[in-house]
């Protein structure tokens, strides 16, 4: 049987939960019999049941109607079923217990806690397994999750709002909006895609930012990370309101990233001032730079994002895309 169309459907179904399942990967599952879809399930919310469990639970309502035994069904699953105890029990155990005898998997799980172990457990218990069906699509759908486990570091993006003359803000501390309302709305969607948002103490004191994703769809808000060695930080700042915040006093960027790597976080969006942004870029740990560039100038009383002869390209990035948002230009640079 050609399982590609069913796998593509499971991938499409899972995509609806990319903002609520994070930092977990999004996963879709189908149970089929003779080219008929019996049930569908997705991993909908971080910490809740996985896709396979949801598909099995829904199929149980059809038992005795559209099928008589689970061994008649084939499970289509976009990502290898887990075999370890996390926030939920192992999906591989639930599949075996249900009596399913064939499983078709989109991609192996890159997480060393799972990778290959879920497949082995199924095979060892008499389940026929096929895998690598639309694997590249599954990997693309969960790019931050795969990146972290394949590169042993979280995916790191730096976001910059720049004036036409390359300024970040005014020297006198006066707060100004560099970019348009439309660009700032686009940033909200950008934030929704990341597991964590990182800033520094200077930005906290100068801007009192919220740095959450103010969007019109459900989202598992990013964890906020504040780099500051100050002991007397006021928790009255908007940054701390209704948020999961971690304060890190370490100053070495490599050690900071190594510390975050040990957590469930797969991706970091750095939103900070020129000093911290340049420290991250110099560390050679940044994978993407996103610049929202205004047509307006700040002038000589502004603070430069970079030294006079420094550009994003000097840090080893190449321009991947550039397009207009109202009067601004959004530029995305990727590591060469």
SSE succession: HEEHEHEHEHHEEHEHEEHEHEEEE
Instruction: Tell me what portion of residues adopts beta-strand conformation.
Output: 25-35%
Q: What strand line-up does the widest sheet have?
A: 10-9-8-11-6-12-15-14
How large is the count of helical segments?
10
Which stretches are poorly predicted, pLDDT < 50 over at least 5 residues? none
Content-based structural category: alpha/beta
Amount of helix: 25-40%
The biggest beta sheet is recorded as:
8 strands, mixed
How many strands?
15
Mean pLDDT: 94
Q: Report Rg.
A: 23 Å
Cα end-to-end separation: 41 Å
Shape: elongated
How would you describe what is shown here?
The strands form three sheets. Strands 10-9-8-11-6-12-15-14 form an eight-stranded mixed beta sheet, sandwiched between helices. The protein is built from ten helices and 15 strands. α3 runs parallel beside α4. The protein is of the alpha/beta class and 336 residues long. Helices cover 27% and strands 25% of the residues. β3, α3 and β4 form a beta-alpha-beta unit. It starts with a helix and ends with a strand. The longest helix is centred in the first third of the chain and has 12 residues. The protein is elongated and about 75 Å long.
């Amino acid at each position: 049987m050609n399982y590609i169309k069913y796998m593509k459907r499971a991938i499409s179904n899972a995509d609806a939960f990319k903002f609520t399942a994070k930092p977990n990967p999004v996963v879709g599952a189908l149970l089929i019999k003779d080219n008929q879809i019996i049930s569908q399930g997705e991993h909908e919310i971080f910490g809740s049941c996985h896709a396979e469990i949801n598909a099995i639970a829904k199929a149980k309502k059809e038992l005795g109607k559209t099928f008589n035994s689970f061994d008649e069904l084939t499970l289509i699953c976009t990502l290898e079923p887990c075999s370890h105890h996390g926030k939920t029990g192992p999906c591989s155990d639930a599949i075996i217990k249900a009596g399913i005898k064939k499983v078709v998997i989109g991609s192996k799980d890159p997480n060393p806690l799972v990778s290959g172990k879920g497949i082995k457990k199924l095979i060892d218990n008499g389940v026929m397994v096929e895998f690598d069906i639309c694997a590249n699509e599954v990997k693309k759908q969960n790019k931050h999750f795969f990146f972290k486990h394949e590169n042993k570091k979280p995916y790191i993006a730096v976001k910059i709002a720049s004036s036409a003359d390359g300024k970040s803000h005014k020297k006198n501390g006066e707060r100004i909006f560099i970019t348009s309302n439309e660009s700032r709305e686009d940033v909200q969607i950008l934030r929704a895609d990341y597991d964590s948002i990182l800033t520094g103490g200077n930005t906290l004191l100068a801007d009192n930012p919220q740095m959450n994703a103010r969007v019109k769809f459900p989202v598992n808000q990013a964890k906020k990370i504040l780099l500051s060695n100050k002991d007397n930080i006021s928790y009255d700042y908007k940054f701390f309101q209704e948020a999961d915040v971690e304060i890190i006093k370490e100053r070495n960027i490599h050690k900071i990233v190594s510390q975050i790597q040990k957590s469930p976080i797969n991706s970091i969006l750095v939103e900070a001032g020129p000093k911290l942004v340049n420290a991250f870029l110099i560390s050679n740990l940044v994978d993407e730079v996103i610049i929202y560039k205004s047509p307006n100038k700040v002038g000589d009383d502004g603070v430069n994002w970079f030294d006079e002869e420094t550009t994003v390209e000097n840090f080893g990035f190449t321009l991947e895309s550039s397009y207009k948002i109202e009067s601004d230009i959004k530029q995305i640079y990727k590591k060469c």
